[in-house]
């Protein structure tokens, strides 16, 4: 049976979802695997939804897009966006989501109470393996708010959900990220991975 991993990455514009897809794709190519990606971007520069389809396989891939129920892994940069993309996840799949919400771009003062907790509860009750990442804490630990994307990849890799090791993702970071940001991103990768093995 050939290796095949289908990944959905969901977030809002400005969170680094597209770079996260590129890092996983780079790790896949370095491993000699086939990879196809596609992004659906709505008002991305204004905080709108961004969904990336990422398909990795040992054999050729016909389409970069997934039908509902095909994804093995759902990485949510924001809990509401994870719920929005939940239909793509196969039964028994893995969800890795940031704990902290981002208010919808069209939020009015009346909707400013959105906390994300109800979204996390929805994810917890869907039957998938769920890992909740304290993205704010990891970003604070390494001193940058720009590394949430890599932190979520680190958590997914630590869970074995991506099919790539932290070392393979490190190499992808070194090849894809500007030199002055490499060490910062690698710190976030490992800080998040450690958080997955820490006692609850």
UniProtKB/TrEMBL annotation:
Top EC class, one word: oxidoreductase
SUPFAM superfamilies: Pyruvate-ferredoxin oxidoreductase, PFOR, domain III
Keyword Oxidoreductase applies: yes
Key words of the record: Oxidoreductase, Pyruvate
Assigned EC number: 1.2.7.8
Top-level taxon: Bacteria
Pfam families (alphabetical): POR
Domain Pyruvate/ketoisovalerate oxidoreductase catalytic: 13-191
GO molecular function, one term: indolepyruvate ferredoxin oxidoreductase activity
Keyword Ribonucleoprotein: no
PANTHER family recorded: INDOLEPYRUVATE OXIDOREDUCTASE SUBUNIT IORB
Protein name: Indolepyruvate ferredoxin oxidoreductase
Protein's organism: Thiorhodococcus drewsii AZ1
């Amino acid at each position: 049976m050939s290796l095949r991993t289908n990944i959905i990455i969901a977030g809002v514009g400005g969170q680094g979802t597209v770079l996260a897809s590129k890092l996983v794709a780079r790790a896949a190519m370095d491993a000699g695997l086939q990879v196809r990606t596609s992004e659906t971007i709505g008002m991305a520069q204004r905080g709108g939804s961004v969904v990336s389809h990422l398909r990795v396989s040992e054999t050729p891939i016909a389409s970069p897009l997934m039908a509902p129920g095909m994804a093995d892994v759902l990485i949510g940069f924001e809990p509401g966006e994870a719920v929005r993309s939940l239909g793509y996840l196969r039964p028994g799949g893995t969800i890795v989501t940031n704990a902290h919400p981002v208010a919808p771009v069209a939020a009015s003062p009346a909707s400013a109470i959105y906390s994300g907790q109800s979204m996390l509860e929805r994810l917890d009750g869907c039957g998938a393996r769920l890992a909740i990442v304290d993205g704010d804490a990891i970003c604070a630990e390494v001193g940058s708010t720009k590394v949430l994307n890599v932190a979520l990849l680190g958590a997914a890799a630590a869970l074995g959900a991506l099919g790539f090791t932290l070392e393979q993702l490190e190499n992808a970071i070194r090849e894809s990220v500007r030199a002055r940001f490499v060490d910062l991103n690698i710190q976030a990768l490992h800080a998040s991975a450690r958080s997955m093995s820490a006692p609850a």
